[in-house]
Design brief:
single chain, 494 residues, alpha/beta, Rossmann fold, Dihydrodipicolinate Reductase, domain 2, 2 domains, nine-stranded mixed sheet, six-stranded parallel sheet, 15 helices
Length: 494
């Protein structure tokens, strides 16, 4: 006999009960522990790839589960975390880890350099593993699109590591904007204090021996091979086009996130950039990236008209709001975002923290709406990871998705990394028209070229300045296609 279908599913119940999130992980195993998925009372077997940096923090935030395997190409950098988990099996090559332990792993954390996020996550997803992937989700637009597609196809629980997405601040921002606190938003500014690592660099020429604790070939992965130099890793890989995505990729998944969620941004219609000197090897010292989004209907009490979003990094800031007091910081020390509406402004710090309304009178007099979005306890202290763990333990049919699941994080990340297209193609001196569906810039001709610096030297000879700047001229159309979808080194694939 068939059982009667429940009249109120868990999905609907939690979706309609804002404060129910605090009890997400206490349902009995006979409710969710079927279809081969662990019950909430059971522990996941988690493997992690890239654990020497922030990946180590992600692992520690998952210590409620079984940490069964740790993988890193740099065993010196990862040594501290290895010591904390002596029972976890240690690997250099994630592929070997998957071959040996694949059947016993439930979920995978990916916190490698940006250029290898997609290849590790894709293999895990296709094996049916839940994945948590550090921001930026991927190195390219195409990789984001494919991870979004495969996560849906394989029905796995996903989360991008933009932990502010689980915070109260971003939820308050959305609720206030949807309530009409500042009217219809037509302009957004987002900024960061990054980079705090060296950028605007040329490729080093000095030859160095690869440390015995580092597998250089595996670090390079799908990128073109180059000689080892200590300037690339650990951590400083963020500056280099082949490995990282610069300050934009590092921080925009945090800082632009409130705008993407609150304003339902989707694909931009066009984008363009200006920056300090751009070279063939690394991101510039400072940049501005401009996006234009078309009208998007309505949400809550507001319309969603065409909106302009501008990104700033390297110490650049938007015009200072006249409503701020003298000495009052814009955002916080790490950056912030400013929404400009028809009735006022809303500003937050990095991660969507501490939203305030401008002018001060609006902030004081505005009656905050009751919460409508579920809250994640201790979001910035492990709650983001724990919400992913909660989703991993639920069946696909009844899963409450994490808020930064790939169906959301993939399109957000596309917007973020396409900003680097604008930076690298700014010599075209035009707005770049974007066909989001086909991931293509539509107004680059077969004859268009861009000139990019390859080397820039300065010296003083007999008291006079001497400049020696070398350029490469490249075809713009194939360059744009390569930036959207990389050609991987032989032996590597998505």
């Amino acid at each position: 006999m068939k059982q009667k279908k429940q009249t109120l599913s868990r999905r609907k119940f939690i979706g309609n009960t804002a404060m129910a999130a605090a009890g997400l992980s206490v349902l009995p195993g006979n409710v969710l522990g079927n279809f081969g998925r662990p019950a909430p009372s059971d522990r996941l077997n988690i493997a992690a790839v890239g654990v020497g940096g922030v990946g180590g923090t992600n692992v520690k935030n998952c210590m409620t589960e079984n940490i069964v395997a740790l993988c890193d190409v740099d065993w010196k950098y990862a040594a501290g975390l290895f010591e904390q988990f002596p029972n976890a099996k240690k690997y250099t090559d994630y592929r070997k880890m998957f071959d040996e332990l694949g059947s016993s792993i439930d979920a995978v954390i990916v916190a490698t350099p940006d250029h290898t996020h997609a290849i590790v996550a894709a293999q895990a997803i296709k094996m049916g593993k839940h994945v948590y992937v550090q921001k930026p989700l991927t190195h390219t637009v195409y990789e984001s699109r494919m991870l979004t597609r495969w996560a849906k196809e394989y029905k796995v629980a996903t989360q991008m590591g933009n932990q502010g997405n689980s915070g109260d601040g971003i939820r308050q921002t959305c609720e206030w904007i949807w309530d009409g606190a500042i009217g219809d938003v037509t302009e957004v500014h987002a900024w960061t204090n990054r980079p705090i690592w060296p950028q605007g660099l040329e490729r080093p020429t000095a030859l160095q021996d690869v440390p015995s604790t580092l597998d250089w070939d595996l670090f390079i992965g799908p990128a073109p091979m180059r000689p080892y130099n200590e300037i690339y890793t650990p951590w400083n890989w963020r500056a280099w086009w082949d490995f990282g995505t610069g300050a934009l990729g590092d921080m925009a998944c945090h800082i632009v996130d409130p705008a993407f969620w609150a304003l339902r941004l989707g694909h931009p219609s066009c984008f363009y950039a200006s920056s300090s000197q751009v070279n063939t090897e690394s991101a510039p010292l400072a940049e501005m990236v401009h996006y234009e989004f078309p009208e998007r209907g309505k949400v809550g009490r507001i319309n969603l008209p065409a909106v302009k979003l501008t990104w700033y990094d390297g110490g650049l800031l938007p015009p200072r709001p006249e409503e701020l007091k003298d000495g009052q910081i814009m955002g916080d020390q790490s950056g912030g975002i400013l929404f400009v509406g028809t009735k006022g402004k809303l500003m937050t710090g990095c991660y969507g923290r501490n939203p305030i309304l401008l002018p001060e009178e609006l902030d004081k007099n505005y009656t905050r709406p009751n919460p409508t979005l579920r809250r994640i306890p201790k979001a910035m202290e492990g709650g983001h990871e724990q919400d992913w763990i909660r989703a991993c333990k639920e069946t696909f049919e009844d899963r409450i998705e994490t808020s930064s699941n790939f169906n959301y994080a993939g399109p957000l990340n596309e917007v973020v990394v396409m900003g680097n297209l604008a930076v690298r193609l700014q010599d075209l001196k035009r707005k770049l028209m974007w066909d989001g569906e086909n991931m293509k810039i539509t107004n680059i001709s077969d004859t268009d070229e861009v000139r990019v610096v390859t080397s820039d030297k300065f010296s003083v000879i007999e008291g006079h300045p001497h400049f020696d700047t070398q350029y490469a001229t490249i075809k713009a159309k194939p360059a744009a296609e390569e930036y959207v979808r990389h050609t991987y080194r032989q032996g590597w694939s998505l």
